[in-house]
From TrEMBL:
It holds the Pfam family E1_dh. The keyword Oxidoreductase applies. This is Pyruvate dehydrogenase E1 component subunit alpha. Its cofactor is thiamine diphosphate. One of its GO terms (molecular function) is pyruvate dehydrogenase (acetyl-transferring) activity. One of its GO terms (biological process) is pyruvate decarboxylation to acetyl-CoA.
């Protein structure tokens, strides 16, 4: 692996930034400061971080309804995201998009998306554009086990394969689609078994191991940039929080959830231990990163709270392109 110690510590910081952003967000929703549906990514941080650490700024990603982690890992600004969640004028979509529509084209973020299974065709379109223009950008589409049952995903897989497009399909197998366990909503055990039907090479990784995700992505990116076409990466992970903030979670046991928060499973605790054990960083350094990120998130909330709401005269502006 070609990562420096500094880059590994940077990956730790990114996972922590996602976690702290979302912990604060959960609090803001539960206290009535933010309204609307919010889907948290807590527990899955190693997937977005490992993948995006292997990408360039000009590479594209498509996200999902559970998108904050993808956006932060690709470089999205926490203050602009928070302002968007508060429906403020200074937010990424001028306060009119909310959690599930945040995009930043300058960072290659083609958007979060409330339509399950809508990201893969967009990534395929971006992949086709890169191939047509002759640049070496790759497109990554993050999607869940549930989304993998959608027809749109199968059409996207077929086209990416037949046209050998530079697309990487990243499955976040977090064990659930809404309130249904993976074993109860699809006939395959691994989502990636489906890649074979489209002659797309696939790999299954521990999605809570950020370096394993990074390594698999690096291989897939290399192959895509060399014109060898798409790869599917299935990341096995677990959604620690409910499907949305407020989910009564009657479909799983407290013991099951707690087991994924243990020091040997939680992606951040695991990586922190590894950084310390391998002398990549000391506890003081990691603690000060934790404090810096906490401060950054507090500032993002202040920025959002102090920002103005969009003017009523702008109601119909920027909502259709
Ligand atoms: C086309 C469409 N169908 C149904 C829904 C309702 N819905 C929202 S999230 C979700 C489950 C998605 O599961 P998965 O793809 O595994 O992602 P996860 O929520 O586990 O991250 C469903 C069915 C939707 N938003 N869009």
């Amino acid at each position: 692996m070609n990562l420096s110690n500094e880059e590994k510590v940077g990956m730790f910081a990114t996972m922590l930034r996602i976690r702290k952003f979302e912990e604060k967000l959960e609090e803001l929703v539960l206290t009535g400061n933010i309204s609307g549906f919010v889907h948290l990514y807590i527990g899955e941080e190693a997937v977005a971080t490992g993948v995006c650490s292997a990408l360039k700024i000009s590479d594209y990603i498509t996200s999902t309804h559970r998108g904050h982690g993808h956006l932060i890992a690709k470089g999205g600004k926490t203050d602009l995201m928070m302002a968007e969640l508060f429906a403020k004028k200074t937010g990424y979509c001028k306060g009119k998009g909310g959690s599930m529509h945040i995009a930043d084209l300058e960072l290659g973020i083609l958007g979060a998306n409330g339509i399950v299974g809508a990201g893969p065709p967009i990534a395929v379109g971006a992949g086709l554009a890169s191939k047509y223009k002759g640049n070496d950008n790759v497109s990554v589409s993050f999607f869940g086990d549930g989304a993998s049952n959608q027809g749109t995903v199968h059409e996207a897989l077929n086209l990416a394969s037949i046209w050998k497009l530079p697309v990487i399909f990243v499955i976040e197998n977090n064990c659930f689609a809404e309130f249904t366990h993976q074993a109860d909503h699809q006939c395959c055990r691994l989502v990636s078994e489906r890649a074979e039907g489209y002659r797309i090479p696939s790999v299954v990784v521990d999605g809570n191991d950020v370096l394993a995700v990074y390594e698999a992505t690096q291989e897939a990116v290399k192959s895509a940039r060399e014109g060898k076409g798409p790869t599917m990466i299935e990341c096995n992970t677990y959604r620690i929080k409910g499907h949305y903030v407020g989910d009564p979670e009657t479909y799983r046991s407290e013991e099951e959830r707690a087991s994924w928060q243990s020091a040997d499973k939680d992606p951040i605790l695991r990586f922190e231990k590894r950084l310390l054990d391998e002398d990549i960083a000391d506890q003081n350094t990691l603690d000060s990163i934790r404090q810096e990120i906490q401060d950054e998130i507090e500032k993002a909330v202040e920025y959002a709270k102090e920002s103005p709401a969009p003017d009523i005269s702008e109601l119909m502006k920027d909502v259709y392109a």
